[in-house]
Each structure stands twice: as C-alpha cells, then as structure tokens.
Amino acid sequence: MYRNAQDLLHLLTHEIRDLDIGYTVEKIPASQLTSLTFFREYVSRNKPVIITGAINHWPALRAWTVDYIREILGSAKICVASTPHGRADSVINADGSQYFALPYEEQMPVQDFFAQLHNGTRGEKIYAQAQNNSLPEQFGALLPDVEEPNWATEAFGVPPEATNLWIGTDDSVTSFHKDHYENIYAVVKGRKLFTLLPPSDAYRLYFQTCQVARYHKDAEGTLVLQPEEPHHEVPWATVDPYPSSEEVEQASRAAHPEYWDPQLPPPLEVDLGPGEVLYLPSLWFHHVRQQASADDDACVIAVNYWYEMAFDCKAAYAKLAEQLATALYTLPQSNA
Ligand SMILES: O=C(O)CCC(=O)C(=O)O
C-alpha cells in the first residue's frame, strides 16, 4: 500500500529502471546498429546508449590539435563564456542569496581563446560552449572534418537543428539540466563524464527558483555577478553530484536526501572517450564534467547534434513528473 506522493515517486523511479532503462548505459558497436534498431531500442524507449565506432572515419579524430584549429580558423572570432569558477549556468551563492548565474560572454579571436584556456588573465575559467549551431556558424572551416550521423537523422526523421562544438578543460563543469532536444554527443579529444537521471527522477534534483544574474567585467576586468534587469527567475536543479569537500557533501546529503538515498538507484554514469558517441534522450537530466590529458593539448573537444524532439506521451509523462517535483520538492529561496 503506497500512502504518499514520496512513496509513489520512489515506485516510479524503480519501475522505470526495472522495466526500461536498467542500471547501466549499454555500449554497442555502430556495426550492430541500423537507424531502425536505434529508433526501436533506444529513441522510442527514451533510453541512452553509448555507440562505439560511429565516428572513426571523421578526420577530426586525428586532425584536431590546437595548432591545426588555430591555423585553419585564422583570425576568426568565437563566442567564449567566462566565469570565476568554471560553473556557468548554475546556482551560485552570492551576497547571501542564490542566483542562477549566466557566464560573461565575449567574441574572441581563436588564438586568444587558446592562449587563455589554461591561464585566464584573472584566473577566470573559459569555455567555448555556445549552443547556437556554433560548429557551422563560428568554426565553419572545421565542418568538413566531421560528418552528420545519418543513422540518427534517419531515425529522428529530420536534419539536426543545431551542431555545436565544445572546447574546454577540466575546469569547466555543466550543472544538472535537461534539454528539449534529442542529443547525439560525440567526443573528439579527452573525456566527458556524464551523470544522468531520467525525467521521472526530477524530484531528486531539488529545483529552486532563482533570480537570474550574469557575470560582467568591471573596470579592472574582474568578473562580477550582477542581477539581470528586468528581474526574472528560473527554476534550476541545486544538486551538485560531485561536492568539493566532505563538508559540502554532508550538507548536500542533508539538504537533498532523495538524491543520495541509498535505497534508490544511483544516477547512471557515462565515461565517454575519444571516438565514442552518447545518445542522450530528450528531457534527461545531465551533469557533465570533463577530463583532458597532456597529450591531448590538455583540452577536451566534443561535437553534438541536437534534433527536434517529439512532443508525445513520453513528454507528457516527463512534464507531470517535473510538475510533481516542483510541487513537492522545490526549495524555498534561502537568504542565509
Ligand atoms: O559538454 C558539456 O559541457 C555539456 C553538454 C550538454 O549539456 C549538452 O550537450 O546538452
């Protein structure tokens, strides 16, 4: 007998794992996948999968060094996001309040970007993370080095809406969020570490409605966070799955018990290396870290294809799960 909403949400979490997505993300070779099997086994079930060997033919895998990118892009300017801590688009405590903090954004020549990637002038952390079709729009000369995944385009029935290039270092982390897109995410250099929760588990992320703020540069060039005008707010996940210290972890365990509950299945972890592709279904919550190695020019490069999602019954269930989470688990704004 299930007595309350919390018990029912736990039941949903367990059933989704047992009936559908399981406890690990499968890894399959591209040679075993057709657009039909990809659609039937993964897209229609809203189930992530790692695909190996799908981009082995991309010249990018061998060609993309920092020197090559600098040379081929010449003086092209790209959009660069900066923060003092590497956590753009996340909940940040400042002046006793919690803000949803957007990064400082500037157009910068590619050479300057690479010169500052590891040594920001004032210690700032920079990340090329524009999600506006950045590969063709800003890095167009690199486009011939990759190839659209035709198997995915066939399965989704539409061409990608955006193709984005990501260049960063271990310093940049992407906080838990979801996207209204089907995502085909390919790592070219370094590793990307995804922590995933299905849409049913929205209640485990403790959304908080936060005022939106953005980093700006003051006269000395130091990044300062300023609330956006006019005042506006967004609900954002407050759970950091990799707390910076034991003390922070203890505080998170107390504030976010549903995330850390040992009776619930842990989030799915995906460690994606060069040449590997993740299918990240629409509306899945994802937190992303990255790991570079010295022989990779100490940077991490990835390309992702965003495809339009279907607003079908799965999207309706996901919306219900999120609305229940908002009703039951949204944290009050703390002024502490
Ligand atoms: O690579 C990242 O830092 C984030 C990727 C992401 O959030 C996405 O592809 O939707």
Give your account of this protein's structure:
It is globular, with a radius of gyration of 20 Å. The two termini are 39 Å apart. Helix 2 packs across helix 7. A hairpin with a 5-residue loop joins strand 12 and strand 13. The chain has ten helices and 18 strands. The protein is 26% helix and 32% strand. It has a single domain, classed as Jelly Rolls, CATH 2.60.120.10. It has a six-stranded mixed beta sheet. By secondary structure, the protein is an alpha+beta fold.
First-to-last CA distance: 39 Å
Topology pattern, helix = H, strand = E = HEHEHHEEEEHEHHEEEEEEEHHEEEEH
What is the share of helical residues? 25-40%
Describe the sheet with the most strands. Answer: 6 strands, mixed
| Broad shape | globular
| Lateral arrangement of strands in the main beta sheet | 1-2-16-10-18-8
Number of domains: 1
CATH architecture: Sandwich
Under CATH at level 1, the class stands as Mainly Beta
Number of helices: 10
CATH superfamily: Jelly Rolls
Low-pLDDT stretches:
none
Which structural class do you get from the secondary structure elements?
alpha+beta
Q: Any idea what the radius of gyration is?
A: 20 Å
According to CATH, what is the topology? Jelly Rolls
Summarize model confidence as the mean pLDDT: 94
Number of strands: 18
List cofactors, ions and other ligands.
Answer: 2-oxoglutaric acid
Beta fraction: 25-35%
